[in-house]
Each structure stands twice: as structure tokens, then as C-alpha cells.
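#struct-pred
JK: can someone run the complex with 3-methyl-2-oxobutanoic acid? inputs below
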Amino acid sequence: MSASKKEYKRVTVKSLVEMKSLGEKISMLTAYDYTMAKIVDGAGIDVILVGDSASNVMAGHETTLPITLDQMIYHASSVVRAIERALVVVDLPFGTYQSDPKEALRSAIRIMKESGGHAVKLEGGKEIKDSIKKILNAGIPVMGHLGLTPQSIYKFGTYTVRAKEEEEALRLIEDAKLLERLGCFALVLEKIPAALAKQVAESISIPVIGIGAGGGVDGQVLVLHDMLGMTQEFHPRFLRRYMNLHEEMTTAISQYVDDVKSSEFPNKNEQY
Ligand code: KIV
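RT: done, C-alpha cells with the ligand placed:
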């Protein structure tokens, strides 16, 4: 287990707010399945995000749009079965909360009931405020997500840095304050200038967790398969690769293929 300032046996939404007030940075990674979640949780992560990036990473889609609520529930329930300590936040997928607050609540309730996740994450600000309110009123914790919101990729057109212009930056600050007022327990800021992210983190009391948003925020999130170097196609500046698992796995699997072909595997000790 890695060191943290205060020991949390179980991380809750309250722990995250406390971490911010104590100046302890929050660690968050994605996971979509039992085996990976068990490793991530055992390594001492604070928050596991069952992200709709599963659409890209697990299913090979180009965007996050195709993943369904049933598929998110499948991934989230696998993760929940693995964890002992981390807070599990589950993305509400595209199309399950934007059209009507009642549908948003129904989707969030399905996630909570059928997966056992601890909170949901929604992309957007003012335009989805009624959905956020409705979910919060039912006692379900909500994490916001502003900046680059991949569910709106066809509106943006590209995955470039958001809120570089003053008008969009001011809108983002307003949205962050609104999410805090509504009662969200935390906020993800994706791919925006570091100075703006720092300004947002300093102007609200809920934790701000960044991805491509610099070091002035209250925590960091990365996609697990990217930071382990399992994926190769994706090279944004913000991504630090802690391993080259793609290379290590390829070497191991090639060795296995050779061993099977040459009858080197199994040997005498590996049989009954
Ligand atoms: O789906 C996801 O993985 C995310 C993170 C990039 C924050 O939303």
C-alpha cells in the first residue's frame, strides 16, 4: 500500500472532501473488471472510476457514445465485487440522462441497485442541472465532469484542449460553481489549461480531480490501460506511462507460443 496522510479503511464521498481540506491529493484510476479492480484497490487507490471509456478500451469503439446502461452495470458490478477500500464511481452513459430528469434518475437508480456502485458521474453543467438535482434528491452522490466531455465529441469535433478562450473559461467556472451549489461531491476537469483548473479548484470547496488539467487541482485520474502502457495508439501530453505492458505482454505471449510449438511447454513438472 502506498502512503497517505490519513488512513481511510473505506473511502467515502465525505473522505474526499476531507482530503481536500487536509491538502491530501486524491488518486483515481479507471477499472472495468474484477481482476484489474482487485489490483488497483489493493494498491491503495482512493477512487475507482468505472468510466464509459470502457466503450473504447474494452469494446474497441471509436467514441464513448455506444456503451449502454446494461453494459455499464455489468462492468461496475464486476468492479464492486473486487473492492475493499476504494470509492466506486460509475459513469452514466450517453443518452441515459440528457433528455429528461426522470429518466436520469431511473438510470442512476439502476446503476446503484444493480451494480452496487457508490456514486454516479455525469458530463455537463447548466444544461443538465435538473437531472443532477433529481439524482441528488434521491440520495445518490453525483460527481460532475466539465472541460473536454467525450460524450459531446461530435459537438466539439476534436479532442483538443478546451476552455482556452475567455468566454468558454468563464462558462466553465460558472458551471463548476453551479455543480458545487447543487451538491455534487466532486468534479472532474478534463483537458483544460492548468491555470484555469487551479483557479477552479481554489474557488470551490469540493474536490477537483484533473485529467490533463495540471497539478494545481485536488487529485488526478488516468485511464488504467493507458497508464500501464497496454494501449499504444493514444499519446496525449498529459499521459504518463508507468509501464510498457503492451511490450511485456507481447514478449510473454510470444514466448508461450514458441514453447507450445516446440513442446517446451508443458515440462515434466507441469503435468500430472
Ligand atoms: O470515462 C472515463 O474514463 C472518464 C475519465 C477520462 C475521467 O471519464
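RT: quick notes.
The mean pLDDT is 96.
The longest helix spans residues 166-182.
JK: thanks, will look after standup
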